[in-house]
Amino acid sequence: MAAAVAARLARLNLFTDADLLLHLPLRYEDETRLTAIRDALPGVPAQFEVEVVSSEIAYRPRRQLVARVRDDSGAMVMRFLNFYPSQQKALAAGTRLRVFGELRGGFFGDEIIHPRFRVVHGEEPLPDRLTPIYPTTAGLGQPLLRKLIRRALDQSDLGDTLPDALRQRLAMADFGESLRFLHQPPPEVSLADIEARSHPAWRRIAFDELLAQQLSLRRAYDA
User: Fold this and answer.
1) pLDDT digits over 119-152, tens only?
2) CA gap 198, 192 in Å, rounded
3) Cα dihedral sign for 129, 204, 24, 177?
4) How many other C-beta atoms are found inside a 10 Å radius of the C-beta of residue 26?
5) How far is CA 145 from CA 8, 31, 47, 131, 183, in A?
6) In the chain, what is the greatest distance between 2 CA atoms, to the nearest angstrom?
7) Cα separation, 42 vs 21, whole angstroms
8) Which end of the chain is less crowded, N or C, counting CB atoms within 10 A of the terminal residue's CB?
9) What does DSSP assign to residue 38?
10) Nearest in space to 103 (alpha carbons), one of 195, 39, 32, 26
11) Is 103 within 8 Å of 42 (Cβ atoms)?
């Protein structure tokens, strides 16, 4: 791992694979489906697949990058109040994009301000899991953090920390399965349940956090 990446991870107290596994998402975004522009609900996050019609730097009321895009159902505007030359270059006319954000009425009509987007090349399948959004720090983007956590999931032995009999008596979910679920939830799960932390997977993680705290206090007391 590059020293610069390790330094940024250290700001989040992430030093080992175990630290990465326990660095759980703040929220999730559903990129497993596409929404037609005409079917978008105001203020509801959605993903669109569109083609860029035009883009320009506008100066009303302030300097901003404005891209007009469309799909087969309608048109909308992507608006960036702060932007980089690379973003402007990526928004060339004729480019296909996948765009995620909240569509709202605005100065230019139906628009998304600062949407997340990426260029689509050919036929790209949609993800089969919800997209986790993690706590992060400057210089450590979500894609890299997701990649590191996926690698930790693949390389780690996620055995349970409780004996089976005790886990079943307490009606607790499996520890390893809970971690995998929270990092890679399937699209059919209720976003409200997992973001409210009422899902059984969150209950299991909370139990282990409390157990670890109590064991630490006991060791300190015995010392």
Assistant:
1) 999 889 999 999 999 999 989 999 999 999 999 9
2) 9
3) negative
4) 10
5) 11, 17, 21, 12, 11
6) 69
7) 35
8) C
9) G
10) 39
11) yes
Q: DSSP characters for 184-202?
A: S--TTS-HHHHHTT-SHHH
CB 122 within 8 A of CB 144: no
Distance, in Å, from the CA atom of 25 to the CA atom of 71, rounded to the nearest integer, reads: 31
For the chain, how big is the Rg over CA atoms in Å?
A: 22
- Separation CA 67–CA 139 (nearest Å): 26
pLDDT, one tens digit per residue, over 190-206 is 888 888 888 999 999 99
Phi, psi for residue 220 in degrees, rounded to 5: -65, -40
Task: Report how far residue 128's alpha carbon sits from residue 88's, in angstroms, rounded to the nearest whole number.
Answer: 30
Q: How is residue 108 written in tokens? A: 């230019």
Of residues 130 and 60, the one with the higher pLDDT is 130
